[in-house]
Amino acid sequence: MAMTTDATTRPAADLADVRAGVAAVRRRNRMRLALTLGIGTVVAAVFAVIALSSGAASLTPDRVLATLFGQGDRTENLVVFTLRLPRILAALFVGAAFGLAGAVFQAVLRNPLASPDILGVSAGASLGAVWAILGLGLAGAVVSGFALAGGIAVAAVIWATAWRQGLHGIRFVLVGVGLAYVCGSLIAWLLARAEVRQAQAALLWTVGSVADVRGDALALLMIGVTIGCLLVALVSRGLPVLALGDDHATSLGVRSSLRRGILLLVAVLLIAVATSVAGPIAFVALIAPAIARRLVDDGSAALTASVMTGAVLTLGSDVIGQFALPQFTAPVGIVTGLIGAPYLLWLLARTERRGSGRKAVA
Amino acid sequence: MSVPHSATGRTAGSLVPEAPAAGRSSGGTGRSGGRDGARRRPRRVGTARALAVLAACTLALLAIVAASLAFGVRSIDPAVVWQAVIGPDAANADHNVVWQLRVPRTVIGLLAGVALGLAGTLIQGVTRNPIADPGLLGLNSGASLAVVLAISFLGVSAPLEYIWFAFGGAAAAAAVVFSIGRGQPVRLALVGAAVTAFITPLIALVLLRDVDAFNQYRFWAVGSLTGRGLEVAAVLWPFILLGAVIAFVLANRLNLIALGDDVANSLGQRVGTTRAVAGLALVLLCGTATALAGPIALVGLVVPHAARRLVGSDYRWIMPTALLLGPVMLLAADVIGRLIVPNSELEAGVVAAFLGAPVLIAIARSRNVAGL
Question: What InterPro entries does the record point to (chain B) (predicted)?
Fold first, then answer.
C-alpha cells in the first residue's frame, strides 16, 4: 500500500525512474543474449574443429582450418568435406531443430517436461522407422518418411485423446507415456522377429545417430530446419504473452489458441524432420531449452538461445560419443540420453524439495 | 493448511477409479462427499456380491486356462486336448504339443499373471497412486539392465540364471524410484519414466557393441510366455507364494493407508513398516514375473483398477480378485496373440500393452489426474 501512495505523490520522478530501470533491464537482457550466442558459437567452433581433426586420419587443427579455406590437398578435402563436415552440420541442424521445438513446446504448454521424448512422439517415429526397416525391408529416404508418419500419427492420437477442455500438460504427458509403451512393445516384437544384424541396425536407428546423414537428406534437413526457425520467429512475437496463460493472453488481445496451435504444429514438424533424418535423439528437446532459459535468464521462452544450446549440445554429445570409449563409437542419442535422464530426475527431485511440484509439473 | 489436506483427500480418493465413461453411481457414497481425506469413506460392496465376483473370476480363469490349452498355431481337437490332460500318451504328437508347449506357457502365464496382478495392487495401494505399475515405475527397466549386463559381461545364458539379476535390478530400480518420487502419484510415474530413460541408452550401448547379447536379450525383452520350461516355474513359485502371502497379510493395512498417512498413523499403524514390507513383496513379485515372462507392462496397472470396479475399495476383496484377474488378463493376451496373426504369434507382452494403454489413457483423462 505504501508503494501506491508514493507513486501517486511523486508520479513524474517515478515514471522516469521506471523508464530508466526498464531500459537498463532491456540492455542487460540484450547483452546476456548476445553473450550467450557468442559463447555458444565459440564452443560450437571448438567442438567442430575437434571433430574435424580427430578420427582415423587425424589432422592438425591448422590443417583443418587451411582445408576449410580451400588450401587442402585431395586427401584432406575428402576427409574434411566428404567424411566429417556433413556429420557436424547434421548434428548442428538436428540439435537446433530439437532445441527450438522443445522451447516452443515448453513455453506453449507451460510445462518444463514437454518434449517429444516424454510425449511419445519419438517412440512413434521409432516405431515407424523400425517397421519400415524390419517389417517392409525398406532402406534410405523411405524409412525417414515412415518415421515422419509414425511420429505425426502418435502426436495426432495424443492430441485427440489428451484434449479435454484445453491442453492440460500432465494429461499430455501421461497419454504420451501410455502410447510410448505400446510403441515400445511393438518395436521389441519387431526386433525379436528379424534377422539379428538387421535388428541391430534398426536398434541403432531408435537410439538416434548423425553419423550417416549426408547428401540429399542433409540438404533437406538444413532447408527444413531453416524454414521452421523462420516460421517460429514470425509467429512467436506474442509468445512472452502466451506463456502467461490463455486467459491473460486473450485479455491482452492475443488470439492465443490459434497462435499456440500454429506454433505447436511447426514444432512438431521440426521434430519430425530432424527425427526422420537422425532418429529420436533423446532429451535434446528437453534439456536445451532449460539450459537456454537459465543462460538468458530474462523470464522469456529463450527461443533463440535454445537453437544455439540445442546445436552445441548435440554436436558436443556426438564428439564425446565418438571418442569417449576406446574402439567403439557411441551414437549421439546414447550420450544425450545419459545426460538428459539425470537432468529430468533432478528437475523432479528439485520441484519436490521446493514443495511446488504440482505447479512445476502440471 | 487446507492445501495439503485437500491434496491427501484427492490422492486417497483417486484410488477409486473414475473412468469418464462410467455412469455408475451405486454405492459411491463417500466418493463425491467431503473433500477432507479423513472423512472420505471407501466404497464397500456386500459380501454376497464380492463372493459372486470371485466365483465369476474363478470361472473366467478356468475358461481362459482351457482356451490357452486348446488354441494355438497347430489346431488340435478339444477332445484330444482333454485326453492329453487326463492321460498323456508319449507317442501322440498332439499330446506332446499340449504337454511340451501349451502346458508350460499356461503355467508360466498363471504364475506371472498372479505376480503382476498382486504387484500392481500393492504398488497402487501403498503409494495411493492410480497410475502405478511395475513397468511404469521403472522396475522392468532395472531388471532388463541387470539381465543385459549379466548376458554380455558374465556370459549368463540360462533363464534360471537371469532370475537373480532380474531380482537385483528390479530392487535397485524400486529403491531409486521410490526414494525420489515419494509421495506424489504423478511424479512417481514420471520418475519411473526418467529412470527408464536413463537405463534405455545404457542397454542400447551394451547391445550395439555385443550382437550375441542382443540376440539373446531381444527374445527376453519382448515379454513372452514361451521359451521358459516348467523347470523355471518349479524354481520360482515359492517366491510368488511368499509375495502373495505378504500381499494378503497387508490387505487390511492398505485399507488404512488409503485414508491417508496421517489417519493411518493416528490409528496406530506403522506406515513406514508397511511400506518397507510391501516393497519387499513387490520386488519378489515383480522380479519373479520379469524373470518368468520378461518385462511385461501395464498388466499390473489394469488389473487392480478392474478389481476395484468389481468389488469396491476394500483391499481384502481386491487382493483375491486381482489374484484371479492377473492371470486372466495375461493368458487372454497370450491367447489373443496366438490367434490374431495367421501362422505366427504376437507375444503376450505386446498384446498386454495394447489392452492396457486405453486404460492408462482413460485414467489420465479422468478428473483426478487432470486436477493434479
Answer: ABC_BtuC-like, ABC_transptr_permease_BtuC
